[in-house]
Design goal:
Helices cover 27% and strands 24% of the residues. By secondary structure, it is α+β, with helices and mostly antiparallel strands. The strands form six sheets. A five-stranded antiparallel beta sheet has the order 6-7-12-10-11. It has a four-stranded mixed beta sheet with strand order 1-2-5-3, covered by helices on one side.
Length: 351
């Protein structure tokens, strides 16, 4: 276990933003993770758990407490059952499952971060969510002081949400188990229209696993969503805002605002999201509110490739980023009456 004091946290995040931690502990085994958590809890020290740092916005003042970086490793495949240590690099794990000929997470290729973060956020993209393949999550329960195994139905998964996100100070994810499908080298049925179009097939079709993964990687790269140290469009947390889910009443009011602003024939994106609810597109809202690709003049700007990504163009501070985020939130609310919610976790700051 490595321990550093007054340690920079910005290099541990994809935004490359944030001040130092009073203490940074890097744990390479589950036992070390648990020991570091117990030490912090027993002493009443604030604890910040860091995986791949791809979903974190840390304040410029840093973190007054112990930052625990989970660097555990472990990739175990038994038939269609995959077990990943929380510190495994997610994109590498996806690549290995594709090589093994197993379907279920191939469209989640290129997503930055660690495996342990995937159930917390119920990570999803291009028609797949981890909640559809996760069978169990092994976590340290800080309240009970013991390791627990939670079945899928106990994780309370929903859109970009879970039991772990709802109660962030209770569980520290140690390992995640997935149930994958052997479909003779083919992908799961494609659910996302953009992916199907790029592959020249219909939604619901299956394609070779490697083709699905490579297509998703190309689509993500075209939107600046694959990490590249030389490309500031990737110095982000990916999608900064979640897609709003509106009640029927809220959607009707929103629809009226859209037609008032854009004309009688204007139709916003609308997707079923359960009984009495409709999901719309945050990217569409941002663009139609006037915040186009590349918007901004300071060191924090909207990506030149995708309106959902806020980026550090180099030399930005967290406050620069938050100022831009607040401007976007205020602008979308003023234009359409919808309040965007940030997807990344904020530490020591808020919108």
């Amino acid at each position: 276990m490595q321990v550093l004091h007054d340690a920079p946290l910005a290099p541990l995040t994809t935004f490359r933003l944030g001040g130092p931690a009073t203490r940074l502990v890097t744990a390479g085994t589950d036992a070390e993770v648990i020991a570091a958590v117990r030490e912090a809890d027993d002493s009443g020290t604030p604890l910040l758990v860091i995986g791949g740092g791809s979903n974190l916005v840390i304040g410029d003042k840093g973190f007054d407490g112990t930052a625990l970086r989970i660097a555990t490793r472990g990739f175990e495949l038994r038939g269609g059952t995959l077990e990943l240590a929380a510190g495994e690099v997610w994109s590498d794990a996806v690549a290995r499952t594709v090589e093994a000929g197993l379907a279920g997470i191939e469209c989640l290729a290129g997503i930055p971060g660690s495996a342990g973060a995937t159930p917390i956020q119920n990570v999803g993209a291009y028609g797949q969510e981890v909640s559809s393949t996760i069978t169990e999550v092994i976590a340290y329960d800080r309240r009970a002081g013991r390791t627990v195994t939670l079945a899928n139905e106990e994780c309370a998964f929903s859109y970009r949400h879970s039991r772990f996100k709802a109660d962030p100070d209770r569980y520290v994810v140690l390992r995640v188990r997935f149930g994958l499908e052997d479909a003779d080298g083919l992908s799961a049925p494609l659910k996302y229209a953009e992916t199907a179009r790029a592959l020249g097939v219909a939604t619901g079709d299956r394609v070779p696993l490697a083709d699905a993964r490579e297509t998703v990687l190309k689509l993500r790269a075209g939107k600046g969503m694959v990490l590249d140290p030389e490309d500031h469009d990737t110095w982000s947390a990916g999608s900064f805002f979640t897609n709003p889910i509106l009640t029927d009443e809220q959607f009707a009011a929103f629809h009226a605002r859209v037609r008032q602003r854009l004309g009688e024939g204007a139709e916003p994106p609308a997707y079923p999201a359960g009984e009495g609810r409709t999901k719309t597109s945050a990217a569409w809202l941002i663009d139609k509110a006037g915040f186009t690709k590349g918007y901004g003049t300071g060191p924090a700007r909207i990506s030149t490739k995708h309106t959902l990504a806020l980026t550090n163009r180099g030399g930005a501070t967290t406050e620069d980023l938050l100022a831009l985020a607040r401007e976007v939130v205020d602008g979308v609310r003023a234009a359409f009456g919808v309040t965007l919610v940030n997807e990344p976790v904020t530490v020591g700051v808020s919108l």
